[in-house]
Design brief:
By secondary structure, this protein is an alpha+beta fold. It has helices at 14-24, 37-42, 78-83, 85-90, 92-98, 104-109, 112-118, 124-132, 149-152, 229-233, 242-255, 266-290; strands at 7-10, 28-31, 50-53, 63-65, 69-73, 135-140, 143-148, 153-155, 158-159, 166-173, 180-187, 197-205, 211-219, 226-227. Bound molecules: flavin-adenine dinucleotide (FAD).
Length: 292
């Protein structure tokens, strides 16, 4: 199907994009890579009266990788992030997550901000943001507010962003420990499809191989991706042995609210969540342990 008619305007600055969002009201939408918005319009699931194009705003495209934090502009393309070696050294989980996001063609256009705001419950970047505790900077005219990932993702395709706000940048905390490993795995019907269930983890260990810090999360098994900081804390001091990991992933799976659809039953999703969470935790641990 074709999308319903709409008006189009190109914004040259974040100020102008915010001004246009306010003046055109709730019918207006920002368009970044268009990889989710355009299909939603073609299926007539969304009928924006105005599209405000943010692709020309250079201030929304940057990667600023510092020792303890990485700032990424919302309109930075996924392909740029996937190729950035300095970014991969500080946030290895980002490159691991991006490898599962769609296809080369969609990553060439798709932006990090578009993926986070679209907030598909199975999407990889929202899950990585939850696991690492990223923070979104939202802009409404001159006002800015910061929203942590655990308050940003509110449900399927729902976030804390207001209709006249623009996601400006995302802050990602960097783990400074010497031995850190991360992993991202998912199961989908074909590579490039949205995940049925995905899992991500990051683990730090000391010289003796004991876990000093852990984080993990699961996507596709509930209305929004979930991280489990309290359960991950139970792994600190262990060597992520089978009993410790199984106990934690069992409790994590019990907190999920998976649904049944044409791709998978709720029971299968819960099973996958347990298996994949254990796999990413063990893989992240082994990578951390082998880091010198
Ligand atoms: C064939 C195909 C396969 C795909 N597979 C996957 C997959 O496996 N995993 C996955 O995660 N995604 C997948 N996608 C979606 C893809 O990752 C998109 O790039 C992403 O979801 C949206 O990014 P975008 O820049 O294209 O945003 P757009 O489509 O332009 O926008 C998406 C939404 O975000 C809003 N928005 C965009 N930027 C901002 C901003 N700065 N501030 C406020 N609101 C904003 C828009 O108004 C819109 O509501 C797939 C897409 C296709 C076409």
């Amino acid at each position: 199907m074709k999308s319903p008619p709409f008006e189009y305007v190109r914004a040259r600055s974040v100020d102008e994009a915010c001004e246009l969002l306010s003046s055109h009201g709730e019918g207006a939408k920002l368009i970044a890579g268009g990889q989710s918005l355009v299909p939603m319009m073609a299926f007539r699931l969304l009928r924006p009266s105005w599209l405000i194009d943010i692709n020309e705003i250079a201030a929304l495209r940057f990667v600023d990788a510092r020792p303890d934090t990485v700032r990424i502009g919302a309109a930075t393309r996924q392909c740029v992030l996937a190729k950035d070696d300095a970014l991969a050294r500080r946030l290895p989980l980002m490159r691991q997550a991006l490898a599962w996001v769609g296809h080369v063609q969609t990553r060439n256009r798709g932006t990090i901000g578009g993926s986070l705001v679209h907030a598909d419950p199975s999407a990889e970047l929202p899950l990585a943001a939850q696991v690492l505790g990223a923070e979104m900077t939202l802009r409404k005219k001159a006002a800015r507010r910061a929203v942590a990932a655990d308050r940003f993702f509110a449900g399927p395709m729902m976030t804390a962003i207001e209709p006249n706000e623009c996601l400006e940048e995302i802050h990602w905390p960097v783990w400074r420990e010497a031995r850190v490993g991360s992993a991202f795995f998912e199961v989908s019907r074909r590579h490039g499809d949205f995940a049925i269930v995905g899992a991500a983890a990051q683990v730090a260990v000391d010289d003796s191989g004991r876990c000093t810090r852990a984080a993990f999360g699961i996507g596709g098994a509930g209305p929004a991706p979930l991280a489990f900081p309290k359960l991950a804390a139970r792994l600190v001091g262990t060597s992520l042995d089978a009993d410790a990991v199984q106990s934690v992933v069992h409790d994590a799976a019990a907190e999920l609210e998976p649904g049944t659809d044409t791709h998978a039953t709720a029971a299968y999703r819960r099973h996958l969540a347990r298996v994949l969470a254990a796999r990413v935790l063990r893989s992240a641990y082994e990578t951390a342990r082998s880091t010198s």
